[in-house]
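Re: beginner question about structure tokens

> Can someone show what the tokenized structure looks like for a real chain? I only ever see the sequence side.

Sure, here's an example I had lying around. Input first:
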Amino acid sequence: MDIHIFKFRPGQLEVRAGTRVTWTNQDDITHTVTSGIPERRDGRFDERLEGRGAAASVHFTKPGVYPYFCGRHPSIRGEILVN
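And the corresponding structure tokens:
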């Protein structure tokens, strides 16, 4: 998955339990991949991607819906569906 021009691409991803998802920052500025919604972080993950080329991974072991956003730019949002 990428963060490019202030968007998570793709914005929604469906994976199987046990999958590791990796985000790569394609922008020149710092973004985060933070679980929950801006109004209610859930503490499952909070990864900082310091500029272009930075990457972070999260291992999804349990089925469910995992919304996430950028902590620096709360309008950037995405969702992982794990089954």
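Each token stands for a local structural state, so reading them left to right follows the chain. Residues 22 and 68 are 13 Å apart (CA to CA).
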